Each structure stands twice: as structure tokens, then as C-alpha cells.
Write the C-alpha cells for this entry.
Amino acid sequence: MKTIVITGGTDGIGAAFARHRLALGDQVAVVGRDKDKGGALAGLGAHFVPADLSLVAENGRVAVELAARYDWIDALVMGARYFRTHRHETPDGFEACFALEYLSRFVLGRSLLDRLERAAAPVVVNISGPGLAKPEIHWDDPGLRRGYSGPAAQMQAGRANDLLGLAFAAEHPHVRTRYVLLNPGPVATSFAGEYDPPTAAFVEQMKRTARPVAELVPPLSALINEPPTAPLSAFAIDRPVDPHTTPGDAAAAERLHRLTLDLLATGR
Ligand SMILES: NC(=O)c1ccc[n+]([C@@H]2O[C@H](COP(=O)([O-])OP(=O)(O)OC[C@H]3O[C@@H](n4cnc5c(N)ncnc54)[C@H](OP(=O)(O)O)[C@@H]3O)[C@@H](O)[C@H]2O)c1
């Protein structure tokens, strides 16, 4: 029996995966905001942790709660996301997509590493978009105060997660915990968010051709049943891809790591 923590576990890929692992008899914690969706999974045996992960302090609280509940964690699967056509700032002062889809994963991966290291074959799966070229981090304006768009925020979060994988492996060279970046490709999920009408229409069209969520369960399960041997790896569904996308990735990962520590210390 494995202990699996899933952020974005109340819907989409995370919820499908939670239901599958609960049926196998695993101990599953799902983190999300929606109490009805969380309650439905709790009815199947999940531990529902209600939290708004776009708030830095909530990530700390969730990590403390999970560490108190579980002696070890076999897998941390991170898939919370939320699209916004219009820029939104969290009460912490961060652009909301950057906060939810990147800062949360930065904080949880580090905060739960101690519990992961106690497991037999621990793995972090960061569901994002590795293997695709993306624009560089907006180093002088990571909050996208200038030139925000929903897609630009999503692309920046994707790039930040690519670099997070590299930074995690560089920061923790001797851990047993494997870090995996997983690109699920287009999947027909809830696509949680606030869309303007043209974007909403585009998303509905995309959902009609995207693969069903159930198709992501086997490759995700395989990563957890038998984590890759490399400290950092990346997959497009079940196909290995290079976790590096530009020659400057290592330097960018270190730069983002330092910037993130600074942002978390000072707030923006
Ligand atoms: N679907 C795709 O085509 C696709 C493609 C590439 C990458 N991905 C990546 O795959 C992962 C999963 O995506 P998905 O499409 O399965 O997601 P989804 O169906 O849109 O569900 C989003 C999840 O995030 C949670 N969430 C949203 N805001 C939150 C907040 N402030 N605090 C805590 N939880 C929050 C939602 O929970 P509540 O409703 O409970 O708040 C929900 O469980 C994401 O990282 C996404 O970027 C997906």
C-alpha cells in the first residue's frame, strides 16, 4: 500500500488518479478547494485537505498537516491549476497563476521531502509541460504586471516548472526521491478557470478532441509503481523527453531558484 498526495486531486487528472489508487487500496490525500468534490473522494476513502494553494501560507499549513498524518509519503503528485483570462493577484501580492502552478509546487516539494525520503521508492510527479520550447521567465517582471495574458501566465508557469525540476535535482543531489516532469498532452478535464468567451469556446473545442482522462492513469501509475532511476526525468505521457529545453537551462534554473527564495522571503 502506498501513500500518495495529490494536489489538484479534486478534479481532472488528479481526481481520476485518486479514484484509481483508492480502488487499489492505497492511502490517498487529495488537496483542493471544492468541498463537494473533496467530499465525494472522501466518501471513497480519500483524506481531503481543503486548501487554497495559491496562498503561500496554505502550502505550509498543508505540509505540516500531511507530515503530522503520514510517517512517509511514497508519491507527491502536483497538478493544481487555474486559468485566468484577466490578471489576478493573490493577497500575498503574487500573480495567481505563478503562485498556484509554480510557487506552491516549489514549497510543497521542499516541505515534504523529509517524508518522501522515508519511503521505499519515493517520487515527485510535477504535471506540467516538459519537452516543449517556451518563452523565458520574465525575469524583471515575473508577476506579469506588463503584458499579462492567460496563455502567457500558463507558459511562464510551465517554464518555471521545467526549471524547478532541474533546481530540485541540483539542490538535492543525494536524495532517493526521484523528480518527474510529466506532460499529459491535451486531456479532456475540467479546465478550471475564468475564461473570456473566445477562450472558453476554444477550450470547449479542444476538449472534444483531447484524450479522455482515464488514459493518463496508467502512465501516471507506472511512474509511481516503479519510479525512474534518474534523479530527474521528463515524459510526454509515457515517452521519455529531455528535461532540458535550452542550453542555458542550468543557469536559468539556479537563477529562478534564487529569485523564488527572494520572492518568498520578501513577497511581491
Ligand atoms: N488537461 C490538459 O490538457 C493538460 C495539458 C497540459 C498540462 N496539464 C497539467 O495537468 C495538471 C492537471 O490538469 P487538469 O486539466 O487535470 O486540471 P483541472 O481539471 O482543470 O483541475 C484543476 C485542479 O486544480 C485545483 N485547483 C484550482 N485552483 C486551486 C487553488 N487555488 N488551490 C488548490 N487547488 C486548486 C482544482 O481543485 P478545486 O476545484 O477543488 O479548487 C482541481 O482539482 C495541471 O498541472 C495542468 O497544467 C493539463
